Amino acid sequence: MLNVLKKSNSRRIIQDSYSFLLVSHTSELQNEELAYLDGFIIDTDTVTNANDIIYSIRTHKNIQVSLSPLFVNSIYKLPKEAAIHTDGDVELNIFSSYIQRVITIKKRIKNLTVPKVISHEKLIQLKTMAFSYSRNKVLTPIATRESYIGYEFPFISLFYKKNEAISLLRNLEKAVKENSLSVSLKDYVHLCKSCSGNYLNFRECCPKCDSIDIVANDMVHHFVCAHVAPEKDFKVDDGLACPKCDKNLRHIGIDYDKPSSIYSCNTCNHEFQNANMKALCLDCETENKLDELLEKTIGSYKITEIGEQILFNQESTSQPQSETISVGSMNTSLFKIIVNQEIKRIEVTQGDSYLAKITFENKQLELLNTDLKLNLTKEISSIIQSYLKASDILSAEKFNSYYILLPETKENKLERLENIQYNLSKLLSDNLSDTQQEIKIEIHKILGTDNSNTYFE
Description:
The chain has 457 residues and is of the alpha+beta class.
């Protein structure tokens, strides 16, 4: 059941125990404990007020508030440049049908936090990744003249002024380079070298004096005498006549043809075959040569698996915390991605790489508590690391299961695995009642045709 509660100047909607604030002006946010609300509904069609509300919520210093569900009352229509930062329209008379979406978003942002020490650029990256993750959506920009670069991005555009579009694109490029965001090409834009604006007027101009006062004339080729000249030289009162042989030209294709055109400059009288092209920025009036324009990629962005791990402090969300080891070894989920990349590399280079899996079984160790298992894992990881090369990668799946990626390693250079096997067996045998602890090592040569999933079954 939908309840609208009015307390002083506050307008709250309660639906299935979830609390939402109807907002028509930012002043209504000032006296509210925003962190205790489950979402917001924009209740105005005044674009300035709506933009202020969106900005105040989405850029809020509390990440839980900035990622909160933000809807628009369906009786109002906001421009696309504002609506792109919201979670869409809602009909208040059937508001209960939107609660599942709210539950999904709230569940995904529940454990998100911001590091105490983080740069402004990284903070924007983190929040953008979190927005993509919490909505499980691709952040696709929209074309708009309101933007300097011609495109507005969901969420992240709110953190940059209009003249800071290059910084926005640069931050997205860094996130892609760090593999925290993936990108799908949408468009290329060409921007002014001075102000990075996209509002350009392309003009042909004279290559000698740069004047745009030029005209194009067709070239005429007279078949009989082979004379070639601009069409203006052939013109007479009653048609065309060859200035070389004085014969009249009556039928194109029979008497003559027009093989090309030539430009004439009305400023300096220079004649030329190919005009130069320049782009005038209508924002700052800078003339740009085409090779001076800044070419930037416009893409659709989505958080990657690595990005999700960054959001949750490098811990895998697919494993219980007690099974996710962080002791100087790589997280298993990230390790699987690296292995998959290695398979693709081997497919191209035909090089030699190996994957080793180290396991052991012991009922005594299974009875250890979580802290003791973690200490054991640290000890085992330390022994393994001492025999690895700088290029080798270790991943601890759990206290008795480890993976090692050995890139660019020949079969006759795997003796370090024997040393690892011997020393692990000695460590466990010396500390357990068993006379001899068996350490099992499986070795797989990586092929370009492999499926990485078979390694981790």
